[in-house]
Every structure is written in structure tokens, then in C-alpha cells.
Amino acid sequence: RHTIGVAHCGAFARRLNFTGRNDTDPSLDPSYGEFLKRQCPTPVNSTTTVGMDPNSTLTFDSHYFSAVNKKQGLFQSDAALITDPTSAGIVTRFQSPSAFFRQFKLSMVKMGAIEVLVGDAGEIRKNCRVINQSIN
Questions:
Q1: Looking at the keywords, is Nucleotide-binding present (predicted)?
Q2: Does the annotation place 63 within a ligand binding site?
Q3: Which domains does the chain have, with CATH numbers?
């Protein structure tokens, strides 16, 4: 099953019931909010999935940035991107496929320069936010 670019309804349910009165987050496009409510009815079924990038879920492209600018970001963190002038400028710039792919290419080159840790150098965390407890 293809799951790239998909989120479970529970991951963004707060945006669809913003204050607990079945009201949509005011920073979300109202028609997109209604679409999401049809996809994820209350009570939320945690196995139901929705594309994270409307109209472009299965394509690697710059459409996500256009969606965010139209207030169609699935998560509150998407909405936050356009509240700060610096990040809003980046979102606007990356709506251009050429700008997005140029920066993506540069990022991949930088990631390719990251050295792989071997042996005892580093650890695989059980929880990515917490350093593993030492076993001594």
C-alpha cells in the first residue's frame, strides 16, 4: 500500500474541532475544512487516511507550497509557516517548481556529505526525542 504523503485523521483532528464545538480552525480554508470533515467524520477513525498535499498526494512537486498559501495545509505547523514573514517568503518562493527543485537538489547534495556513523559512534534512539538510557 502506498502511504507517502498520507496522514491519519487523528493527526490533524484538532483543526477540525478547534475549540471542542465542532468548529474548524479559523486559519484553515473553510471549503478545505469541510472536505476534511467529510473524509474524517466524528468520531475520528484512526485508520482513515487523507493526503497531506491536496490534489498532489502521489506526485513529488512544489504543489504543497501553493496549498499552504491557500490555507490548505493539513497541520497547524503548515498554517504557522505563513504567519512569519521569513517563512512566508520561503513558501511563496517555493511555489515555483524551478526554485523548489533547485533548493531540493542543493539540500540532497548537503545530505550526501553527512558521514555515516559506524561502530559505537552514535546510537539508534528508541524514541527520537530522548537519548537512550545507558545500560551499565
A1: no
A2: no
A3: 6-112 (1.10.420.10)
